Amino acid sequence: MWKPTKVQSYLKAANQVVSNNIAPLKPNAVIAPKPVTLIPQNPQCSFALSQLLPDGNVRISSGPAVSTQVRWAHTDINVPDWSHYRRDPVKAPTAKSTDSEEGRKSFTYLIAGAGTVTAAYAAKAVVGQFVSSMSASADVLALAKIEIKLGEIPEGKSVTFKWRGKPLFIRHRTAEEIATEQGVNVSSLRDPQHDNDRVKKPEWLVILGVCTHLGCVPIANAGDFGGYYCPCHGSHYDASGRIRKGPAPLNLEVPYYEFPDDTTLVVG
Amino acid sequence: MAGLPSTIYNTVFKRTSTFALACVCATFFFERTFDLGSEYLFEKVNEGKLWKHIKHNYEK
């Protein structure tokens, strides 16, 4: 190790030094000893405190006042009886613990399993409650349906209803319209869908009156295909609500509906 | 030595997979029993106060 011998000359400004208790390897020059200040030790950690304790055998080990009696811990200190906490099969000092190992482990796992089952039940209940809170409540569901008397809609007419805040078109199609729509070549359509897939009864077309382009309300009995025509950007729909011409990408949406009897239609 | 505890331990508790499976299956039955039991208890405690107990007085 390189020892900076000349560094000491730079330390001349100091008028006292603190001893590090390391003797210099070889004094290069005779330097007048500087006064060494002993800093009193102020123990602050347990180790420093322990250094202050007297170590070694400090008691008086011989003499007339010293008893030769030795106190052994096992003779007079009462050890608590832990047998209440111990498993029955291993209480006997001669019992082999491997003999009852499976039984003891079974009991432990049984308790753990019972806790798991209870926790799973509770977790399922909590999750179920949160999930069911997301579903629509009964009053919302009651408003979500609309019942329509079909006898009031004459043949060849499209009637608009308001359903869930959106216009709903019910069209009583004529036999001629039905024949036309069923005869359309599906492969020629932009959104290929046969007329039979869009109606439950061929006389009744139920569609949402929202243009699939930008959401305008199409006009009934207008356009090149005799169905619906959207005035906003000129989308033509046929009498099955399928897009035939114009910018709209998809057919008009068919909501869920059913016929409870011959004269009633329930949408929703 | 080989008794019921060791059989149960070796078949069910020893492997984590079988232990978890047993927990899931037990949860199914526990849920059913617990729900039915608590429902029965509730109706027993509230005997005569629930709609289905007084329904016959108001409906034909």
From TrEMBL, chain A:
Pfam families in UniProt: Rieske, Ubiq-Cytc-red_N, UCR_TM
Record note on cofactor: Binds 1 [2Fe-2S] cluster per subunit.
Gene Ontology terms describing biological process: mitochondrial electron transport, ubiquinol to cytochrome c
UniProt-recorded Gene Ontology molecular function terms: 2 iron, 2 sulfur cluster binding; metal ion binding; oxidoreductase activity; quinol-cytochrome-c reductase activity
Gene3D superfamilies, A to Z: Rieske [2Fe-2S] iron-sulphur domain (2.102.10.10), Ubiquinol cytochrome reductase, transmembrane domain (1.20.5.270)
Cofactor(s) recorded in Swiss-Prot or TrEMBL: [2Fe-2S] cluster
Cleavable signal peptide: none
EC category name: translocase
The UniProt record lists the keyword Nucleotidyltransferase: no
InterPro entries assigned: bc1_Rieske_TM_sf, Rieske_2Fe-2S, Rieske_2Fe-2S_sf, Rieske_Fe-S_prot, Rieske_Fe-S_prot_C, Rieske_TM, Ubiquinol_cyt_c_Rdtase_Fe-S-su, UQCRFS1_N
GO cellular component, one term: respiratory chain complex III
Swiss-Prot/TrEMBL catalytic activity: a quinol + 2 Fe(III)-[cytochrome c](out) = a quinone + 2 Fe(II)-[cytochrome c](out) + 2 H(+)(out)
Keywords for this protein: 2Fe-2S, Disulfide bond, Electron transport, Iron, Iron-sulfur, Membrane, Metal-binding, Mitochondrion, Respiratory chain, Transmembrane, Transmembrane helix, Transport
Recorded topology in the membrane: Single-pass membrane protein
Record's miscellaneous remark: The Rieske protein is a high potential 2Fe-2S protein.
NCBIfam families (UniProt xref): Rieske_proteo (TIGR01416)
Record-given protein name: Cytochrome b-c1 complex subunit Rieske, mitochondrial
Organism: Tribolium castaneum (Red flour beetle)
Automatic annotation (TrEMBL), chain B:
Alphabetically ordered keywords of this record: Electron transport, Membrane, Mitochondrion, Mitochondrion inner membrane, Respiratory chain, Transmembrane, Transmembrane helix, Transport
Topological category with respect to the lipid bilayer: Single-pass membrane protein
Gene Ontology cellular-component annotations: mitochondrial inner membrane; respiratory chain complex III
UniProt xrefs under InterPro entries: QCR9, QCR9_sf
One annotated GO biological process: mitochondrial electron transport, ubiquinol to cytochrome c
Name of a matching Pfam family: UCR_UQCRX_QCR9
Main location: mitochondrion
Localisation: Mitochondrion inner membrane
Quaternary assembly: Component of the ubiquinol-cytochrome c oxidoreductase (cytochrome b-c1 complex, complex III, CIII), a multisubunit enzyme composed of 3 respiratory subunits cytochrome b, cytochrome c1 and Rieske protein, 2 core protein subunits, and additional low-molecular weight protein subunits.
Similarity comment: family membership: Belongs to the UQCR10/QCR9 family.
Function: Component of the ubiquinol-cytochrome c oxidoreductase, a multisubunit transmembrane complex that is part of the mitochondrial electron transport chain which drives oxidative phosphorylation. The complex plays an important role in the uptake of multiple carbon sources present in different host niches.
Entries under PANTHER family matching the protein: CYTOCHROME B-C1 COMPLEX SUBUNIT 9, UBIQUINOL-CYTOCHROME C REDUCTASE COMPLEX, SUBUNIT X
Listed name of the protein: Complex III subunit 9
GN (gene name): Ucrc
